[in-house]
UniProtKB/TrEMBL annotation:
NCBIfam families: cbiD, PRK00075.1-1. This is Cobalt-precorrin-5B C(1)-methyltransferase. GO terms for biological process: anaerobic cobalamin biosynthetic process; methylation. It comes from Pseudomonas fluorescens. GO terms for molecular function: cobalt-precorrin-5B C1-methyltransferase activity. Its EC number is 2.1.1.195.
Length: 365
């Protein structure tokens, strides 16, 4: 468990990716094999040239190889792998190069559409390059002409992976070893956005050209009920609708259904790409204007402006026979269409807290 957050604001602390952890532990284990050197820390170079020192939990010989481990430090980012023990086991082999294997707690790709092929260990390209570069440099320094077999492990990785999108993406058996810069930036949510992109890629590659981008469990259940979509076609976008809309410029599908709570859809209708309360807020005066455009009288408009929540505003409009949910969805639809390619058919659903549809715009078939 993490320490409690300090009451006084302070700069957020960055961390290091699982790719950096795998690089450090692979290097330490290989160095033990080639130079007989054990250490309690190891220095690695990140992709942009920064050098960082990483503490080791152990570095030891095992069977016909060696292994080293470190605790993943995600800094102040709410990462499911924070504090997890990541360890790499290295074995020397005659063939030059590096052969990667998924150990305990590291997943294997089982569906096409990801950057890695089916059957490959879920160790992404940048971590693979980082590990390969460091081991190649070590081999040159040591006068070693063979290669390495690197098996990356994450303790309890199978259980941790269930808290990620890996099962939906077809990455089974554990976590992915990730990172493009080597650094985890607090609340950047880069890994989440990357998972959204991967989800769209996997769905399209596997022939699912109608996808539903959902803000949470209730909206996913609604899309299952309406369209009976399989899990692979349900994109868990959370608050990052912009990540979906922008990615469809590169990887267009035939149809996109967007589904979320009324409040979040109202933010999309106002042109927000990030629906989290840190970055956007519900505009009650705007809701009042939209209600006025479809017949709300002056009293109702004022009531909407004075409402405590968007749900209260919606309830007042519904009681007066004003289809505010549909109007909000129509504005959200217009904004979404302005971002995605013209060939993508788009529709928007707004739901209440029980998953009931309170608004819709677009082709509902």
């Amino acid at each position: 468990m993490r320490d409690e957050t300090a009451e006084q604001p302070a700069p957020l602390r960055s961390g290091l990716t699982t790719g950096s952890c795998a690089t450090a532990t692979s290097l330490a284990a290989a160095r033990l094999l080639l130079a007989g050197a054990t250490a309690d820390a190891v220095e690695i170079t990140l992709p942009k040239g920064k050098q960082v020192q990483m503490r080791l939990e152990f570095c030891r010989r095992v069977d016909d190889g060696a292994e080293a481990g470190t605790l993943k430090d995600a800094g102040d980012d709410p990462d499911v792998t924070h504090g997890a023990l990541l360890y790499s086991r290295v074995r020397l082999r005659a063939e030059p190069g590096v052969d990667f294997k998924a150990g305990r707690g590291v997943g294997t790709v089982t569906r096409p559409g990801l950057v890695l092929g089916v059957g490959e260990p879920a160790i992404n390209p940048v971590p693979r390059k980082m590990i390969t570069d460091h081991l190649t440099r070590l081999a040159t320094e040591s006068g070693y002409h063979g290669g390495f077999e690197v098996t990356v492990n994450v303790e309890n990785g199978e259980a941790l992976a269930l808290k990620t999108m890996n099962p939906r993406l077809g990455i089974l058996g554990g976590l992915s070893i990730l990172g493009t810069s080597g650094i985890v930036r607090p609340f950047s949510c880069a890994a989440y956005i990357a998972s959204i992109h991967q989800g769209i890629d996997v769905a399209k590659t596997n022939g699912y050209l109608h996808i539903a981008a959902c803000t949470g469990n209730a909206s996913e259940d609604t899309m299952r009920r309406v369209y009976n979509l399989p899990e692979i076609a349900l994109i868990e976008m959370g608050d990052f609708v912009g990540a979906v809309l922008k990615h469809l410029r590169k990887v267009p599908v035939d149809k996109l259904s967007i589904c979320g709570g009324f409040g979040k859809i109202s933010k999309l209708a106002a042109g927000h790409m990030d629906l989290h309360s840190r970055h956007s807020s519900i505009d009650l005066p705007q809701l009042a204007e939209w209600a006025a455009a479809i017949g709300a009288d002056t009293a109702l408009q004022q009531g909407i402006r004075d409402a405590n929540t968007s749900q209260q505003a919606l309830a007042m409009a519904s009681a007066a026979g004003i289809a505010l949910g549909d109007a909000v969805c129509l504005h959200a639809l217009d904004f979404a269409r302005s971002v995605v390619p013209a060939q993508v058919q788009v529709e928007v659903f707004a739901i209440d807290r029980q998953g009931g549809i309170v608004g819709h715009a677009g082709a509902f078939q």
